[in-house]
């Protein structure tokens, strides 16, 4: 079984790396936060002191970082350190699962390809619950050979693997999805709040809408109203999950993309404005379903 260097052990990366261990992969792990490295080392991974250290001797690199600047620095290097493309062994497969701008994904992929590496942009959907249950959806961009090579590793962490197209296509498809997710989360929050304001039980209303024409992923898997579903961020003080600031990054990417292609995305623009206002009220590091509080009269 191959050895995977896992870089970025946050809300998503840690459970993904745990699943690789469960499926028999050897994992060499690095994060800037030493507690995260200690947590995965406690489950059988090798703790590493840098990304370069983690990638040494690995067959595959998987990165799960916040944004494009982190992915760029990891693979291409910056003023402080060399990038992995300058240090890893030939034939190392490189998979970036972070959600980043398509331009950076294409740039890194091109440099990797010119050096003879296979590089795949493979952002994910499914949230922390999907990461824990190994049911993530991977949305890949890259050449056919690279994506085929990535499948055995991705299958250990997810249940759906799509090939959206060439380099950067995974990122483009992912931001289309996340713009829609933001719109659905806002719409679900306002519909639930209006129901509550008029005396409906949010659990009963959720059950009704889930199986009616308003049904959507947020109602099925990620209800934003506290107490309706167990084990979702809304029922845990909106901790963990997918931070508002990361959703804002994705909404920013979607609006930049829309501007470049002259696409009309009024709902995405409105969702971005609502999440900006929510972040300004001190909610940047809370789960994005906390947008529910902007509509709810009852504060949690
Ligand atoms: P997070 O902030 O919880 O984790 C990111 C981790 O990367 C942190 O532990 C941080 O210390 C580490 N890191 C940052 N720079 C680093 C570097 N140079 N070297 C090593 N480690 C570094 O974020 P997350 O929620 O795990 O999200 C990761 C990515 O996945 C983001 O791009 C996000 O948009 C995307 N995503 C998140 C979710 C979700 O539900 N949380 C769902 C789908 C996609």
From TrEMBL:
Keywords: Branched-chain amino acid catabolism, NAD, Oxidoreductase. Pathway: Amino-acid degradation; L-valine degradation. It is an enzyme of class 1 (oxidoreductase). It comes from Shewanella dokdonensis. Residues 3-165 form the 6-phosphogluconate dehydrogenase NADP-binding domain. Residues 168-292 form the 3-hydroxyisobutyrate dehydrogenase-like NAD-binding domain. The gene is mmsB. Its EC number is 1.1.1.31. PANTHER family: 3-HYDROXYISOBUTYRATE DEHYDROGENASE, MITOCHONDRIAL, 3-HYDROXYISOBUTYRATE DEHYDROGENASE-RELATED. It catalyses: 3-hydroxy-2-methylpropanoate + NAD(+) = 2-methyl-3-oxopropanoate + NADH + H(+). This is 3-hydroxyisobutyrate dehydrogenase.
């Amino acid at each position: 079984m191959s050895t995977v260097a896992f870089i970025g052990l946050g809300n998503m990366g840690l459970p993904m790396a745990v699943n690789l261990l469960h499926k028999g992969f050897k994992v060499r792990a690095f994060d800037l936060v030493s507690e995260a490295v200690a947590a995965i080392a406690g489950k059988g991974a090798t703790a590493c002191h840098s990304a370069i250290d983690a990638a040494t001797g690995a067959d595959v690199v998987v990165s799960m970082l916040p944004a494009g600047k982190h992915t760029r620095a990891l693979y291409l290097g910056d003023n402080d350190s060399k990038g992995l493309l300058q240090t890893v062994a030939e034939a190392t497969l490189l998979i970036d699962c972070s959600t980043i701008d398509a331009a950076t994904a294409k740039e890194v992929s091109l440099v990797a390809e010119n050096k003879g590496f296979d590089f795949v942009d493979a952002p994910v959907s499914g949230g922390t619950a999907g990461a824990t249950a190994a049911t993530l959806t991977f949305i890949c961009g890259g050449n056919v050979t690279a994506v085929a090579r990535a499948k055995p590793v991705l299958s250990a962490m997810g249940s759906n693997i799509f090939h959206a197209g060439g380099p950067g296509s995974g990122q483009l498809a992912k931001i289309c999805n996340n713009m829609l997710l933001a719109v659905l989360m806002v719409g679900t929050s306002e519909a639930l709040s209006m129901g509550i304001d008029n005396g409906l039980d949010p659990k009963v209303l959720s059950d009704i809408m889930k199986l009616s024409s308003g049904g959507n992923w947020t109602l099925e898997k990620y209800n934003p109203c506290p107490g309706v579903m167990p084990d979702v961020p809304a029922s845990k003080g909106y901790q963990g999950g997918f931070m508002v600031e990361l959703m804002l990054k994705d909404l920013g990417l979607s609006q930049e993309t829309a501007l470049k292609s002259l696409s009309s995305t009024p709902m995405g623009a409105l969702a971005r404005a609502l999440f900006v206002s929510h972040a300004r009220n001190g909610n940047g590091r809370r789960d994005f379903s906390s947008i529910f509080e902007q509509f709810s009269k009852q504060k949690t």
